[in-house]
Specification:
The protein contains 10 helices and 9 strands. It is an alpha+beta fold and 278 residues long. It has 2 domains: 2-67 and 123-271, no CATH class; 69-117, no CATH class. The strands form 3 sheets. Strands 6, 7, 8 and 9 form a 4-stranded antiparallel sheet that branches. A 3-stranded antiparallel sheet has the order 1-3-2. A hairpin with a 2-residue loop joins strand 7 and strand 8 (267-270). It is globular, with a radius of gyration of 18 Å.
Length: 278
């Protein structure tokens, strides 16, 4: 078992990165790998492969990753054409469909049916989600072991000069509210690039329509395992567990969490997670 002390339960990007890590591992021929969080210290734990094997899996997955279809349908989630989405949903394979459903969903309104985006897209202005992810992938690949070690084992130094995707509260640019500081648009970026990449890889676990139907506009909800869970079990429980009674959920070794969404200018940012007690 690998203790992932960098992926602590108190950080939403760390939680997402844990999900993304398990998804990659399962997709690369390690379906028996499991993930859980220790309630004693909030660390994530990955079982089913060694550290060397894990680095090999991640390195293989990163080969030409930026050329994948789901990263090249556009530069940004925003403003995608509904007609194109419908055509892609009609012709997509199972893997592509998961990504399409993670990014967008159709919604009926007073002016007809439109295409809405996932709540988990925090980007704005010149920062565009798909373009940003394509840009960070070579950075991770160039220093794979160092980047992955920081993300998974910690501590997070937030020293990578790559634009934050808004999932890590610790990377929030607060310069505009600090005397003598720079505005968020001109302040230096300070992120954990491998954690951000792994968090992106978790998006298929959270269909955009499902997230929108769960709760308020300014929050997202998900569940976490405290007993070892495989990717298939995680996805199944994720989609059902957010609607279960908290006590029933806990009896099965899971907990439900709310993650608020705040604004930093036009950019979004996830807030520290809060567990549901009842």
């Amino acid at each position: 078992m690998i203790e992932l002390s960098g992926l602590n339960i108190t950080n939403p990007q760390a939680q997402l990165a844990s999900f993304g890590l398990l998804r990659i591992v399962a997709s690369r021929g390690k379906p028996s790998a499991t993930l859980h969080w220790r309630e004693s210290d909030g660390s994530a734990c990955l079982a089913g492969l060694s550290w060397g094997d894990l680095l090999g899996v991640l390195g293989d997955y990163l080969v030409d990753r930026e050329r994948a279809p789901e990263l090249n349908w556009a530069d940004t989630i925003k403003g995608y054409l509904r007609e194109r989405y419908r055509e892609q949903m009609r012709t997509a394979n199972a893997g592509e469909r998961e990504w399409l459903e993670a990014y967008w969903y159709e919604v009926a309104g007073k002016k007809g049916v439109s295409l809405a985006e996932t709540k988990l897209d925090m980007t704005a202005g010149g920062l565009k989600l798909f373009a940003a992810v394509r840009k960070l992938l070579p950075v991770v690949r160039a220093s794979l072991e160092t980047s992955v070690r920081e993300a998974l084992l910690g501590p997070w130094l937030n020293a990578d000069n790559v634009g934050s995707l808004g999932w890590d509260p610790g990377a929030l640019k607060s310069g505009a509210t600090v005397a003598g500081g720079k505005a968020p648009t001109s302040a230096k970026d300070a992120t954990v690039v491998a954690a951000m990449w792994l968090a992106f890889e978790a998006l298929p676990l959270f269909p955009a329509r499902w997230l929108a139907e769960l709760g308020k506009f300014d929050e997202v909800i998900w569940v976490l395992p405290h007993r070892p869970a495989s990717w298939a079990g995680l996805r199944e429980m994720q989609l059902a567990g957010v609607r279960m009674d908290v006590e029933d959920l806990r009896a099965q070794g899971w907990s439900r969490w709310s993650v608020g969404i705040t604004r930093n200018g036009k950019f979004g940012c996830l807030l520290p997670p809060t567990p549901h007690r009842s």
